[in-house]
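2024-03-11 09:14:02 INFO queue: dequeued item Ceramide-binding protein SVF1, len=378
2024-03-11 09:14:02 INFO validating residues
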Amino acid sequence: MFNWAKQQLANVAGTQEPEYGPSAIQAVGKQEGDPAYTELTKEGLKWSTIDSTCVETQTFYLFTDAGHIGFLQVIYNNVAGLRITVQFNCKIFYPNNEKPALWSSDPLENYGFDEEQYSFYADGVSMELSEDGSSYHIKSARNENSLVDVKYTRTAPGFVGGKNGTSNFGTDPNAPWGSMYHAFWPRCNIEGRIITKDGQLDVKGRGVFIHALQGMKPHHLAARWNFANFQSPTYSALLMEFTTPSSYGSTVVRVGGVATEGKILFGGTSGDVKHIESKQDSENDWPEPTVVSYHLDGKTEDGKEVSADILANLGERLDRLDVMAEVPGFIKTIVASAAGTRPYIYQYAPKGTTLKLKIGDEVKEEEGTLFTEATFIS
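2024-03-11 09:14:37 INFO prediction written
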């Protein structure tokens, strides 16, 4: 009971948590009887909108045929059950950096959901899931520099890691005090347009959808993140990895998978991310990665051993986000008084990246486009 009380104080005040150790996190896919992954159903796409501190996001990544990379995103933030704010973000990187990146981030008013919590609405914004659960239609007239009308259609099954995509935090597994959830559509066709002040951008291409819920203060759940999103003509590969703060034993949790048209080749929670080379960022002292390897392994449906590897020389970063400077005040409230919290996100899209896929004794390689992030929080 005393640990629970200390944790509740940390949740509300943002203070550092006690040292609970690795037994206080029940990581996704690592509990007895858990499958490597589970195919995502429509039910798993519902907004949770829990009534305590959380950050819930639906993020739609895009890789256009013309070479643009970016994402559309709704962020739902609840600060200690006292204040809720909602934001719509649009970010576009242009091919060969021919223009500065487009970044718009707008607070939303009069937000709401349909009766079953599948679709989101706000003044000037809608994000609707189709009746059959296979496509999203995203519209935004919230910002005159990013008028959005884009449709994502799933072309491979979605999935979650383990049984339900959730890692639970707490010393009593039957009564967790926090959670982390991720659900993925690894491979989508996208169509539509984004109208900017410079003209119309045709977004025809390939996309990825991720629904995430951080059901506690974000800096209490994770100290670091790695994210890899690879798209090629044949394959889509995803890897999401976070490392907990020392309060949960600096435990590494990951989920990922590889899909092709109409099929998940494999998914699971085994693999690793290595920052093989890095350099010290002179502005904030974080070790900015320069060469990174991503590895996933598992089994196909017919029992064959399978692995996926990407080795990336990251080159010049696309962007470095100082989260405390970029985001609205509600995030500052969430991380207020958290000692040592300096969240920065480094974003890259190295050219000529190759996925090496080994299925049984067969090795396949294919070049594609990689978008990757390294996030340092505390």
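2024-03-11 09:14:37 INFO annotate: The first strand starts at residue 25 and ends at 26.
2024-03-11 09:14:38 INFO item closed
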